[in-house]
Specification:
Number of helices: 12
Oligomer: single chain
Helix content: 55-70%
Distance between the termini: 42 Å
Shape: globular
Radius of gyration: 28 Å
Number of strands: 0
Largest sheet: none
Length: 333
């Protein structure tokens, strides 16, 4: 409902102000990048960011695959039925807790943990986990461990949703994307983008692939991290991701508007009825000459054009040409 964007922005601003006032928090940067923010961008960096966004889209496709497998397992055992909601929740939380005990950076929804991940800080900086290094002293300090954190986070997101727990995808996917971005920096350390910006671009690519929120994702990431000058790079990653995954719907509530599709649906139904009636007429006149069948076809098409004259967007020329050719050959399939 793009025509209500101004009202939505106003409600968002008022809500943010009320919440911050009641909690005593300021409105500003949330994550400290531990580095000097970017002063400017160059075209090469935006191009690199686009490639990072494409990799993020690939991880988004991987998450869709993993989540579909997890849901199929739950469905196989009948756990998606609300009759077994308790067992469903127990299995979901068991997987989440077990992974969190080994890899503590995967715990919670990711807003507080994102700073640790995209700055590659020690696990001791995690704010809500104890012990911060988990049971095995896990640290995210190499390509392999970064990939493990990202994959483990995707699994925990999937089991959280499959387990029936309330919540969304945005910040959890940000966290997974930050880990994958840091892994990419280990693999290609010569990139012209700062590692923190690579993580932001990867987080944008992954999140947009799932939620299809291109502009919101870009604004959230650059302003919460204090990297406003990286907006072009993060937006580039977001755009490439949504173009690459536009065929891949995920959130079922993201549907077409009925008031925009009803006219097209009605028109299609009218065309189906028209073609059906035309075929019946031609079948009844199969013993007539070809000239009579041809005349019948043209007259029927002319009648349809006159009855549906207000619909200027649909050109029936292709239909007239095709059906005329088949009628001249004395058959119509």
């Amino acid at each position: 409902y793009f025509e209500h964007v101004l009202e939505a922005i106003l409600c968002g601003v008022l809500t943010c102000c009320v919440f911050r006032k009641l909690t005593g928090e300021v409105i500003g940067q949330v994550w400290d990048s531990k580095d000097v923010p970017m002063e400017y961008e160059v075209p090469e960096e935006i191009a690199e960011a686009a490639m990072v966004g494409l990799v993020g889209a690939a991880f988004g496709a991987l998450f869709v695959f993993v989540h579909s497998r997890v849901l199929s397992v739950f469905d196989h055992f009948g756990l998606l039925n609300n009759k077994y909601a308790v067992w469903r929740a127990i299995i979901g939380c068991t997987v989440i807790v077990l992974i969190g005990m080994i890899i503590p950076a995967t715990m919670f929804w990711g807003e507080a943990e994102f700073e640790t991940l995209f700055t590659l800080s020690p696990m001791s900086t995690l704010k809500h986990v104890f012990p911060t290094a988990g049971l095995i002293g896990f640290e995210m300090d190499s390509f392999a461990t970064c990939v493990i954190v990202g994959l483990a986070k995707l699994v925990t997101i999937s089991f959280s949703v499959a387990g029936g727990y309330r919540g969304g995808f945005i910040f959890p996917l940000f966290s997974a994307g930050a880990a994958f971005g840091r892994a990419l920096c280990f693999l290609y350390p010569s990139t012209s983008l700062k590692p923190t910006v690579v993580s932001l671009c990867m987080a944008a690519g992954l999140n947009v692939a799932i939620t299809k929120t291109t502009m919101a994702t870009t604004l959230i990431l650059v302003y919460l991290s204090g990297e406003q000058n990286a907006m072009s790079a993060v937006l580039s990653a977001s755009l490439v991701s949504i173009f690459a995954t536009s065929y891949m719907p995920f959130i079922m509530t993201q549907v077409d508007r009925a008031d925009e599709t009803i006219e097209v649906v009605d028109l299609v139904e009218q065309e189906v009825v028209f073609v059906h009636n035309l075929v019946n007429k031609l079948k009844r006149n199969t013993n007539n000459s070809m000239s009579m069948s041809h005349s019948l076809l043209n007259s029927t098409l002319s009648t349809f054009d006159e009855e549906h004259a207000p619909v200027d967007e649909i050109d029936l020329g292709f239909l007239n040409k095709s059906l005329t050719r088949h009628a001249k050959r004395s058959y119509l399939v």
